[in-house]
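Students often ask why we bother encoding 3D structure as a string. The short answer is that it lets us treat folding as translation between two languages. Here is a chain of 316 residues written in the first language.
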Amino acid sequence: MKQKFIDQIHHNKIDQNRLKSSSNNAKKRAGSPAWIGRKPPKSPSNIDWGQFKQYLVSKYSRNWSKMIYLYCKKYHKLLENPIKLETFKECKRNNVLKALIVLSKYLGMYQNFKHKLDQYGIRPSRRDAFSSFLRILNNSNGDVVNWYNHATDVLRPNEQLLLRFAFVTGIRKNEAIQSFNLVIQLQKNGNIENYYNEELNALEHFKFKNTFLRRTKNVYISFVPESLISDIANSEPVTYSAIIKRLKRKDLRTRINELRDYYATFMVKHGLIREEVDLLQGRIPGSVFIRHYWSPSFKELRDRTLKAVNLLKQSL
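And here it is in the second language, the structure alphabet:
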């Protein structure tokens, strides 16, 4: 009996020591550098939309960040149950899904959201080979030159100049407007040489990373005749909204981005290889050859590009 009582006291001491040790370990973890500052994931029902908007503007282009913000405000509850995404049309589903992925990463719950998407079998849809064939078959780029000529008849001189600039560079609509206005601004400030390289006849977009280098869509360099740069530098800034209004008054569609498609096809037909067109339009493929071995001569590429640009201008 006495021995049993002694054993019971011994076990109680062991339990007390274990409890004390567990408490001390918890305190150590709470005060350790790895633990300090660690915050639990934010909840989709408690989002500071003002901070999220600032986060988007710091990482993405203005139009893309605006679209992400609007979709997230409207559909943020789908982070908890994304099955409703399956009821959207393909284009909308992709855009909403991309927006929610950005929001989930911002909230620190991306892995949880990804797991739910896997459970429901939801994935971004990509254009298959047949859809791409139909796009090529039904493309309307053949009449984009006619549209260009009609559009220039109703636009102001500076807006006509923007269309010509977009046509001979093949860059995206927003990039063309930003670049156009930047040339004017730098000319007024007396430091256009920080952007336009006269020796290469090139606008070096890569020097303005915050404007032209983004997470996905980039533009690095554009070969532009010096005469066109001079015309732009002495022109007036443009806005997309003003161009849209003037075109709508004459029942003309806005097809500025189609100029980019026409440019790419035209350049491949007139002396440039696909990789060179990709480079001029801001695409750097992920192949080992392109990333590590391809080393084109920029002066030689400039000569062939400007030669093709002269042919392009003759077709207008």
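Translate back mentally: The longest strand covers residues 196-197. Keep this in mind for the problem set.
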